[in-house]
């Protein structure tokens, strides 16, 4: 459609005509609505808007540690092996395998008592689901889910992703064992969102998106025993901030940690389970500066004529 006229037309009849032609154009198009029950959903965003990401899982330590009281257990003897080396515990195509840490013994830093991984696990009242590794400079425990392959020849095998951070030496690193626990999940989410509210107190928030595991909701029949537990808690701490999201069978985001103090997480993205990943959009801070605006009569008239008076393609 093409429209040409003068400023007077646009201020009266022209606007109505332009609106009607646009409405006619929209109504003449066929729109197809398709319900997709099995697929991949993506969200693309543009612009220089800062994004803050947080991740919460919530685990209960089986040694009684927390963010204020670290685990007394440290790795005493460990071997690092790459695929194809004699010490590597698995066989297969080296291109498909990752380097591993094989933990031979663990020491109680308080008593000096040394235990094998098997003896260490035997001391626990509950069955652990994750082993946490915390190097001296780490913020929180790096989590590795346990599996039937985690024990090889009385060694606790920690499979890495091959990245530089995960292949650093483990000798002397703190170690803890964790299990999923509903109350711990809710407590961790409360702590995380409370910290988030504090660190964003001087910022203006645009909104947020949430990706939560379908094991966490939305029904109260989930492990958390609350309707929309993650979304409801976000609303509790940010009642005026719009939030969009959904539940999924796997969440992509920064790797969940245990006992971390920094609320923001970035990098180390992975597909993980039983987490909730939030992304907050922040109003960017624009540094003040000086701008020259030419609002002279001739410049304004030239702008209006060039944008509104000449034929334009809609």
Automatic annotation (TrEMBL):
Span of domain FIST C-domain: 99-255
InterPro entries xrefs: FIST_C (IPR019494)
One of the GO BP terms on file: positive regulation of proteasomal ubiquitin-dependent protein catabolic process
PANTHER family referenced in this protein's UniProt entry, alphabetically: F-BOX ONLY PROTEIN 22
Name recorded for this polypeptide: FIST C-domain domain-containing protein
Organism lineage string: Eukaryota, Sar, Stramenopiles, Ochrophyta, Bacillariophyta
């Amino acid at each position: 459609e093409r429209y040409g006229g003068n400023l007077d037309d646009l201020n009266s009849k022209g606007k109505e005509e332009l609106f009607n032609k646009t409405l006619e154009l929209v109504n003449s198009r066929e729109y197809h609505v398709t319900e997709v029950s099995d697929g991949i959903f993506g969200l693309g965003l543009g612009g220089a808007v800062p994004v803050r990401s947080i991740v919460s899982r919530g685990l209960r330590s089986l040694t009684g540690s927390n963010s204020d009281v670290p685990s007394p257990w440290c790795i005493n003897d460990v071997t690092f092996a790459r695929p194809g080396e004699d010490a590597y515990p698995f066989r297969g195509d080296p291109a498909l395998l990752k380097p591993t840490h094989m933990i031979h013994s663990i020491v109680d830093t308080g008593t000096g008592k040394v235990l094998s991984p098997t003896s260490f696990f035997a001391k626990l009242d509950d069955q652990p689901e994750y082993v946490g590794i915390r190097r001296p400079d780490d913020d929180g425990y790096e989590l590795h889910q346990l599996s039937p392959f985690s024990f090889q020849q009385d060694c606790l095998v920690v499979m890495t992703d091959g990245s530089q951070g995960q292949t650093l030496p483990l000798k002397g690193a703190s170690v803890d064992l964790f299990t999923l626990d509903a109350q711990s999940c809710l407590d961790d989410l409360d702590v995380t969102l409370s910290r988030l509210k504090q660190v964003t107190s001087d910022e203006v928030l645009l909104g947020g998106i949430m990706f939560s595991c379908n094991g966490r909701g939305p029904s109260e029949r989930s492990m958390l025993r609350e309707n929309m537990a993650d979304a409801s808690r976000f609303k509790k701490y940010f009642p005026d901030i719009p939030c969009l999201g959904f539940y999924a069978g796997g969440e992509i985001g920064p790797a969940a940690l245990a006992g971390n103090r920094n609320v923001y997480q970035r990098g180390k993205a992975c597909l993980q389970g039983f987490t909730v990943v939030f992304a907050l959009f922040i109003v960017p801070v624009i540094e003040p500066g000086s701008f020259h605006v030419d609002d002279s009569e001739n410049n304004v008239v030239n702008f209006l004529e060039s944008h509104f008076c000449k034929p334009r393609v809609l």
